[in-house]
Specification:
Number of helices: 0
Order of helices and strands: EEEEEEEEEEEEEEEEEEEEE
Distance between the termini: 34 Å
Largest sheet: 4 strands, antiparallel
Helix content: under 10%
Radius of gyration: 18 Å
Mean pLDDT: 85
Low-confidence stretches: none
Shape: globular
Strand order of the largest sheet: 3-4-5-6
Length: about 250
């Protein structure tokens, strides 16, 4: 569902024509011209798992079916030229379905976690990063404002990759019982915000420098969601039954 932000009236509803599927992630491109959805599709049903819409009409411009690469999270480059899609390849030794034919490769494929870089102009996957830690329905991706880094926070901690080469720059193990729930860069790239929930309310929020080298502040509560104002002055954290607004220096 899409709303007008001036009146909060409903602008448009996007109804998935394929039953038994769900939306795992969504995002607008920085220029506001495109809207992107990452979908959960069973191998037994058809339909694209990555769909790009024109925000002037809310009609699909194009899409891509990636099964047996199952997609969970998405991040968009600052120049709106590329999409990073995170997920996992889960593939049986023998593909048991007549249709759809898998388009991400021919079985059998090795099971692996994956970040795929999609070129929005070429409308194709141009690069992949394999074995990138756990990427499941709890994982989050964030693309740094300078376009140089892609960060993954998931079930096995946090990893930062060079967006061009795929080289891993930072690799931090997760704390037992935690699940990453939110990940954001400040608009100027000065800060990286990380939120984690714990099954016994031992979660936290952390404010790092943009390279994840120095911990600047820790929020000792279950941080389930994070938002940053466009001017970079304020941070909002969703904590249990309340929202807290922080002023950033």
């Amino acid at each position: 569902r899409v709303w007008h932000t001036d009146t909060w009236a409903v602008l448009h509803d996007i109804i998935d024509p394929v039953s038994g599927s769900g939306c795992n992630a969504m995002a607008f491109t920085p220029d506001g011209k495109s809207f992107i959805r990452v979908l959960d599709r069973s191998p037994q049903v058809g339909g694209d798992t990555l769909v790009i819409y024109d925000t002037s009409t809310w009609l699909p411009i194009w899409g891509m079916r990636t099964v047996p690469f199952y997609t969970y999270t998405v991040a968009i480059s600052p120049d709106a030229q590329f999409i990073a899609v995170g997920g996992e390849v889960r593939n049986p030794r023998v593909w048991p379905f007549k249709t759809p034919v898998p388009t991400f490769g021919n079985p059998p494929l090795a099971n692996t976690t994956l970040i795929a870089i999609v070129d929005l102009n070429k409308r194709s996957i141009i690069r992949t990063m394999k074995d990138v830690g756990v990427i499941n329905e709890f994982a989050r991706l964030a693309w740094s404002p300078d376009g140089r880094q892609i960060t993954n926070a998931g079930g096995e901690g946090l990893q930062i990759f060079d967006a061009q080469s795929g080289q891993i720059l930072v690799n931090v193990a997760a704390t037992t019982g935690t699940a990453a729930t939110s990940l954001r860069y400040s608009p100027n790239g000065k800060y990286l915000f990380e939120g984690v929930e714990h099954d016994k309310k031992g979660g936290w929020g952390k404010i790092w420098d943009g390279q994840h080298r120095k911990l600047l502040q820790e929020i000792k509560e279950n941080v389930s969601s994070i938002a940053v104002s466009k001017d970079g002055r304020y941070l909002a954290t969703g904590v249990d039954d309340k929202t807290i607004i922080w002023q950033l220096k």
